[in-house]
Design brief:
Rossmann fold; 10 strands; alpha/beta; 12 helices; about 45% helix; 2 domains; six-stranded parallel beta sheet
Length: about 300
């Protein structure tokens, strides 16, 4: 997104842990913004701490602040924490604009007096793929978070001895040792992998699967799969269908529908739809960029 917006991309990281990590990154953020003399600053939410620092420094340096809000940056903790959501909205109101990925999120923020603009993620350029030597598999893009139908994933995998199911992400935070030992052989858990290996899993998969229980969430796996010209199955939501149309397959978040969606995806050729979507989508990104700056 930084390249599309012609912005400097600055990522600050540290080996420090806990409170000292925040102190270190806040100091370095201050130095970057002081020395950069930027007219416009983009900050990603999450992190809420980063957004709070950017809102504070905006008062001193006078830049325009645009917050790129992921779903968790619109409704932290799935909206359950009243205090956290109040703090989040307080900060978002002090930005000059807040980028969201769809009209539902925009309407939610506008109802809370936040200046929001829709700007969907650009299609990513994946790393040169490196194969992990796996075959005949569905690649399940998973962060093992509470908005994912993980139980349904596992249930379907147990029913499908004709396919392997390769899951991304840190599975250790979900399974106990006993549960891990009881999983069938067709469930593969490589854990976190390098970028080139991740790209290899996307490219080598028969189908990519990335579902969410959120009605207003556009998942990263959709963009990644389509960028690599791969079939992807998404949750059957309005925001997904409005954006991706015939370039993806859709399912309800239950095992019966997911099984049928996998079968449909395996036997259906949608290469032409994917290519057409990519062509149209890249053209719309230019207009979306202009809309972002028009809000300032």
């Amino acid at each position: 997104m930084a390249a599309l917006l012609e912005a400097d991309y600055i990522e600050l990281s540290t080996t420090k842990k806990g409170f000292s990590r925040y102190v270190e990154c806040i100091k370095r953020t201050f130095k970057v913004l002081r020395n950069g003399h930027y007219d416009v600053v983009f900050a990603q939410n999450p992190s809420l701490i980063l957004v709070a620092v950017a809102v504070f420094l905006k008062l001193f340096f006078g830049f325009k602040l645009i917050i790129d809000a992921h779903n968790a940056g619109v409704r932290p903790k799935e909206g359950r924490s009243v205090a956290l959501n109040k703090v989040n909205l307080f900060l978002l109101k002090r930005a000059d604009a807040v980028i969201v990925t769809n009209e539902q999120l925009k309407c939610y923020l506008e109802n809370h007096n936040v200046n929001a603009v829709v700007f969907t993620d650009p299609l990513p350029s994946l790393a040169k793929p490196k194969s992990l030597g796996l075959n005949n598999f569905v690649f399940v893009i998973c962060s093992w978070s509470e908005d994912e139908p993980i139980r349904e994933y596992i249930q379907v995998a147990k029913q499908r001895d004709d396919l392997n199911f390769v899951f991304s992400g840190n599975y250790k935070k979900y399974f106990s040792d006993t549960e891990l030992a009881s999983l069938p052989e067709n469930i593969k858990l490589p854990g976190f992998v390098a970028e080139d290996e991740y790209a290899g899993l996307v490219v080598d998969a028969k189908v990519v699967l990335d579902l969410t229980t959120r009605d207003d969430c556009l998942v990263c796996g959709a963009y990644e799969a389509i960028s690599a010209n791969k079939k992807v199955i998404l949750s059957d939501t309005k925001v997904n269908k409005d954006l991706f149309g015939d370039a993806a397959f859709y399912t309800k978040n239950n095992s019966t529908d997911l099984n049928m969606a996998i079968d449909t995806a395996l036997r259906t050729d949608i290469d032409a739809h994917i290519k057409q979507f990519k062509s149209d989508y890249n053209a719309t990104q230019v207009n979306a960029k202009q809309n972002v700056f028009a809000t300032l």
